[in-house]
Amino acid sequence: MALFRRSPKPRPPCSPSDIPGKPALVRLEGETKQALETGRTRLVIGMALFSALFLVMAGRLVWLTAFSGGEPPVARGINPDLLAKTVLMERQPIVDRNGQMLAANLRTASLFADPRKVSRPDEAALRLAQVLPEFSVAELQMKLAPGKSFSWIKRNLTPRQQFEVNALGIPGLYFHTEQKRVYPQANLAVHVLGYTDIDGKGISGIEQHFDEALRDPARTGDPLELSIDIRVQHIVREELAKTVQYFQAIGGGAIVLDIHTGEIISLVSLPDFDPLNPGEASKDARFNRITLGVYEMGSTMKTLNTAMALDYGTVKLNGGYDATNPIQISRFQIRDDHPKRRWLSVAEIFMYSSNIGSAKMAVDVGPGLQREFMGKVGLLNKPSIEVPEVGAPLVPRNWKTVETMTIAFGHGLSVTPLQLASATAAMINGGVLHPPTLVKRPPGLPAPGRQVIKPEVSDIMRKLMLLVVEEGTGKKADVEGYLVGGKTGTSEKVNERGGYNRKALFNTFVAGFPMNKPRYLVQVMVDEPKPQKSTYGFATAGWTAAPAAGRIITRIAPLLGVPPVNEEAPEIKQAMYVPIPGMPAPGMAKAQERKVVAQ
C-alpha distances in angstroms, 30 versus 25, 27, 39, 43, 208? Predict the structure, then answer.
């Protein structure tokens, strides 16, 4: 049997006439054939022209969409320089330390007119006013008045406004594609970011400080990373706003600082404003209380005063001063708000916030060394930070004994809250002063800084600040598991005509946590709080700023990766112990209780 079968020979094709029932083909000759050939030729030519036109239109559409942003052509006769001067240049985005968008550019359409081509300006103005109600008919008539070739109608229209204006079909109106700076977090970080003007120039905050860098074409797509954590920023602002509202204060501020790098994790100043409508903000709302405001910081300065005396060795931790009677110097009297009327140890002076003891401690240091120390921790010069809104400290002209005494407890030297936060961080981080920054530091690289106090003095200050929260004026800032240490400060604001206003208080609480191994500093200030029934008529820092700081720490500690600790653990109790006359050492109190029960 063969594997392959040979194919049969093909038969010749048959003609149609050979097929039964199939009609024969018609052959065309002469004029009929020529007419059909001409029609077919014309049809092919027509289809070719139509295809070419379609390809041109499609190509133009692709060009406009992909390469020109959908921007209609500029009207003939318009000077392109008029548009070029007002086009917002590409501006780099700004993000927080975790990459969350804080500021970015969006393409928008701006409406302009060539009044020469507007045939009926009065009618056009009337119709435009219905779509753009923020303008009166008279204003639009002026914009469309003949005699000029270019007039801006409105910059940065919304898509809805662009659609409605376009639907009017008014000749002489044109759209120009621009870019608008937007802030997805609204006013949440406005005093950090600042804002830009309508032409994209930085006006305040980070936007102004880094204006050239943000507009640098070489940095396209490279965002500016800030040290701010927008999650922490939200919590801080929320808690501060509650405090300001509850105590009917005129304002407030707060800062969260990484004490080992100087990075500012949160910075809030209230009241604040919408960065897209800065013109509607009051002068007070635009004022940055943390970096620009200069205040007498009250008893929070005792942290620096105590560290100074211990570092210079003019007093030891087991030393102290007689605080039995007020100090009378010249026409001034220095007294304690809660007098103990006895000799106080250094720890007690700090814990009970004794003005008398602090003043005597500073006198032993002397005016010269006090001034040297305050300069060393950055309180005598304008601080350096990446925003233009920075206040300069008010330093006394004559720095003598009286000034030395009053500066010891927070009067006579006015500084910004930023300066106080930075200096206090150095008191608890091992003694290193790190310059504060709003820009994220490169990971893995050591932060710049310089030693300003001995590490052993910093260790003592951590213990003393913890004592203030456990036994002193900062009890309402206590947060279980986080070993919060801090210092309260209540100062009376200076009157414009001199002297102090007893009813206008400026309250500050500065805290660190966890004090066995501190990582962050939280500082809260409340400007002119009013006494409330729930605070028994008090409006001092221990009743206003300290509780707010405690609530902030409770909420942000888990976000920042700070684990709680067992505060009652013997090793922690022993490590944070400060010897105070009359107070038992760790473990002794329970031993005494057992002895009493046994008896």
Answer: 17, 10, 15, 21, 86
Beta strand 485-494 with 500-513 is antiparallel
Task: Read off the amino acid at residue 65.
Answer: T
Q: Considering only residues 165 and 580, tell me which one the structure prediction assigns the higher pLDDT.
A: 165
Does the pTM surpass 0.90? The reply is no
Are the CB atoms for 304 and 423 separated by under 8 Å?
yes
Q: Per the structure block, which two tokens stand in for 415?
A: 């500084």
81-226 and 233-567, same CATH topology? no
Is residue 450 classed exposed, middle or buried when 0-12, 13-18 and 19+ CB atoms within 10 A define those classes?
exposed
Tokens, residue 523: 């500082």
Determine the Cα–Cα distance for residues 183 and 94; give it in Å rounded to an integer: 9
Q: Rounded to whole angstroms, how far apart are CA atoms 402 and 329?
A: 7
* Contacts with 150 (C-beta within 8 Å, 6 or more apart), sequence order: 78, 79, 82, 112, 113, 114
Provide the token pair at 459.
């260790």
Alpha helices, DSSP H, located in 157-282: 159-168, 190-193, 205-209, 211-214, 230-246
Q: In the structure encoding, which two tokens stand for residue 490, read together?
A: 């209540």
pLDDT of 548 reads 98
Tokens of 251: 């304002």
The total number of residues written for the chain in this structure: 599
Indicate the SS3 state at residue 425. Answer: helix
Classify residue 338 by its DSSP letter.
S
User: What are the backbone dihedrals phi and psi of residue 194, each rounded to the nearest 5 degrees, phi first?
Assistant: 75, -150
Contact between 259 and 429 (Cβ < 8 Å): yes
H runs (alpha helix) in 302-352: 302-312, 346-351
Measured N-to-C along each axis, helices 355-365 and 302-312 cross at an angle, to the nearest 10 degrees, of 40
- Say which amino acid occupies 522: V
Least confident piece of the model among 443-452, 546-555, 572-581: 572-581
Is 592 or 284 the better-scoring residue by pLDDT?
284
Decide: 468 and 349 in contact? Cβ < 8 Å.
Answer: no
Tell me the H-state helices in 221-301.
230-246, 283-286
Q: What is the CB neighbour count within 10 angstroms for residue 297?
A: 30
The predicted-structure confidence for 371-429, as pLDDT tens digits, reads as follows 999 999 999 999 999 999 999 999 999 999 999 999 999 999 999 999 999 999 999 99
Query: Which CATH number describes the domain made up of 81-226?
Result: 3.90.1310.10
| Residue 422 falls in the annotated catalytic set | no
Integer angstrom CA distances of residue 595 from 273, 568, 573, 598, 599 = 62, 21, 21, 5, 6
Q: Which among 282, 348, 272 is positioned nearest to 315, based on CA atoms?
A: 348
Catalytic hit among 299, 345, 422, 491: 299
588 is written with which tokens? 């002794």
Task: Domain ranges for the chain, please list them.
Answer: 81-226, 233-567
d(CA 362, CA 230): 41
Closest CA relative to residue 321, chosen from 299, 352, 296: 352
In degrees rounded to 5, what are phi and psi of residue 580? -130, 130
Host H or E run for residue 139:
helix 137-143
The domain 233-567: what is its CATH number? 3.40.710.10
Do 510 and 476 touch, CB atoms closer than 8 A?
A: no
pLDDT tens digits for range 333-361: 999 998 999 999 999 999 999 999 999 99
